[in-house]
Structure formats: structure tokens, C-alpha cells
Design goal:
Layout lengths: L1 E8 L6 H4 L10 H5 L10 H4 L5 E4 L11 H9 L3 E4 L4 H10 L2 E4 L1 H6 L5 E5 L4 E4 L5 E3 L5 H9 L2 H13 L1
Parallel strand pairs: 1-2, 2-3, 3-4
Antiparallel strand pairs: 1-5, 5-6, 6-7
Helix pairs in contact: 4-5, 7-8
Length: 167
């Protein structure tokens, strides 16, 4: 599966309070959270992005408090995936559990700039800067994890398989 979109660039140590500020955690409604995605890092983010766009960031993306709201907000806002130099471990797990594709690639994170168009081949893990043609290898997402992402996350994936098993 290939994803394509425009890049929105952020720096190192983007924490979960910047991804979805704590003042909005009184709801778990994904569409309400989406309205405030990245608000404290870039107040104009939601108005600038389009569904299918990517976030490219430096090291330690998703650090801070352990909240599932962060990947939910990004996914509901329409972000296709996040490419970062590294991810905080709990964000890494929460992203896949909530159905948000993430790719760890320090070279791509350092070189790809905001506004550029990229594609990501989930089968091979190759990230391509469509502006320059440069390719960056990252970890491929295995087929069962791609299914988990396309199902919308771990809970939907498990539900689907349990229903299929009982049918």
C-alpha cells in the first residue's frame, strides 16, 4: 500500500501536550480532538493540512504523558502518517493501537522539508521525496500490521477477527 501527501514539519521533542493539549482531554470524540490537533505547536495546523498529509519531525516525537488521545487526534484530523527521527515508546505503541501509521527514519526526518510532497510504500518501508526523487529506507509495515491500520486500530482489528471466527 502506498500513501502520498504533503509534509508538515516539526522539530525535536514534540510532546503529547503539543499534539493534543490537555485542556481538550475532557472528550474522547475523535472529531472534536481533530479540531485541536497540533494546536500548541502550530495554531494554524488544522486549517493548513489536508487529509492524507504527513507530519515529519525530529527525534522523540510523542514524548510526555501517555495519552491515546494524541494519535487519535492526528488520525481523525486526516494525517496519513508520521515520519520521525525517533518516537517515544508509549506513543509508538499507541499510534499503531489507534490506527496511525508511523515510520522511524532519522535521515528522512532530517532532510525532508515542510511543503514537499512525499510517498511512503508501506510494503517496503521506502519513503520517497517526490520533489527530489530521493528515497529513504525505513522499516516496512508487515501485512498484518497494515491490516490493523486499515481496520482503524487494534480494537477494530480484534473485533473483526472475533466476529469472523464466530460466524
Amino acid at each position: 500500500m502506498e500513501l502520498k501527501g504533503k509534509v508538515h514539519q516539526f522539530g525535536d521533542d514534540v510532546n503529547t501536550d503539543e499534539i493534543i493539549p490537555a485542556r481538550y482531554l475532557n472528550t474522547s470524540d475523535p472529531m472534536e480532538l481533530a479540531k485541536h490537533a497540533m494546536e500548541d505547536a502550530d495554531p494554524e495546523f488544522v486549517s493548513k493540512m489536508q487529509p492524507g498529509d504527513f507530519i515529519v519531525a525530529g527525534k522523540n516525537f510523542g514524548c510526555g504523558s501517555s495519552r491515546e488521545h494524541a494519535p487519535i487526534a492526528l488520525k481523525a484530523a486526516g494525517i496519513a502518517g508520521v515520519i520521525a527521527g525517533s518516537f517515544a515508546r508509549i506513543f509508538y505503541r499507541n499510534a499503531f493501537n489507534m490506527g496511525l501509521a508511523i515510520f522511524e527514519c532519522p535521515e528522512a526526518a532530517a532532510e525532508i522539508k515542510g511543503g514537499q510532497q512525499i510517498s511512503v510504500d508501506m510494503d517496503s518501508g521506502v519513503i520517497t521525496d517526490l520533489s527530489t526523487g530521493k528515497k529513504y529506507p525505513s522499516q516496512a509495515i508487515p501485512p498484518f500490521m497494515q491490516e490493523l491500520l486499515s481496520d482503524g486500530g487494534l480494537m477494530a482489528f480484534v473485533k473483526k477477527h472475533l466476529e469472523a471466527k464466530s460466524a
